[in-house]
Design goal:
Distance between the termini: 58 Å
Structural class: mainly alpha
Largest sheet: none
Order of helices and strands: HHHHHH
Number of strands: 0
CATH superfamily: Transferase(Phosphotransferase) domain 1
Number of domains: 1
CATH architecture: Orthogonal Bundle
CATH class: Mainly Alpha
Strand content: under 5%
Radius of gyration: 17 Å
Helix content: 40-55%
CATH topology: Transferase(Phosphotransferase), domain 1
C-alpha cells in the first residue's frame, strides 16, 4: 500500500481503487492538520490526551458535540470564527466515510473561495438534537 498513514482514504487502504475522492479525503486531513496545528496521529503520554490522539476521530467527536472551534490551534490569536468554521466544515465534508458523499476538489475550492454557498455539516457529524422521549436514565422507576 502506498500513501502516508492517516492521510490515506479508508477505501484505498482497504484495497479499493485510487480515485479523485481519495485525494479529496487526503486534502481534508491536511486541512485539519493546518487548523489544529498538529499531526493527524499524535502519541500522548497522559490519559486525558488520549481522546485527542487521532485528529480525525477527535474532530468527529467535537462536531457531534457542537464544539468545532475547540479544534483550532490555541496558538492562533487572531481568529475569524466564521472562516475557521467554514474550513473545518469543508474538511469534514472531505472526510466522509463514503467516497460518493465527498465533494469534488472543484467544489472544495468553490466553497473555500466563497464562489459556492457555505456547506452544511454532514449529517454523520451533526450534533444530535435532544430527544423528546426520556431516556431510561431519566425515567422514574415506579
Amino acid at each position: 500500500m502506498r500513501g502516508t498513514v492517516c492521510y490515506v482514504a479508508p477505501e484505498y487502504s482497504g484495497g479499493g481503487d485510487l480515485s479523485e475522492k481519495c485525494d479529496v479525503y487526503s486534502f481534508g486531513v491536511l486541512l485539519l492538520v493546518l487548523i489544529a496545528g498538529r499531526r493527524p496521529l499524535q502519541v500522548t503520554s497522559t490519559v486525558s490526551e488520549y481522546q485527542r490522539a487521532n485528529l480525525i476521530s477527535w474532530a468527529r467527536r467535537l462536531a457531534r458535540s457542537g464544539k468545532l472551534l475547540d479544534l483550532v490551534d490555541k496558538k492562533i490569536h487572531s481568529l475569524n470564527k466564521d472562516q475557521a468554521q467554514l474550513c473545518i466544515t469543508v474538511a469534514l465534508l472531505c472526510l466522509q466515510k463514503s467516497p460518493g458523499c465527498r465533494p469534488s476538489i472543484k467544489e472544495v475550492v468553490g466553497m473555500l473561495t466563497g464562489n459556492l454557498d457555505p456547506p452544511a455539516l454532514p449529517i454523520e457529524f451533526s450534533p444530535s438534537p435532544n430527544s423528546r422521549f426520556p431516556s431510561k436514565s431519566r425515567m422514574k422507576v415506579l
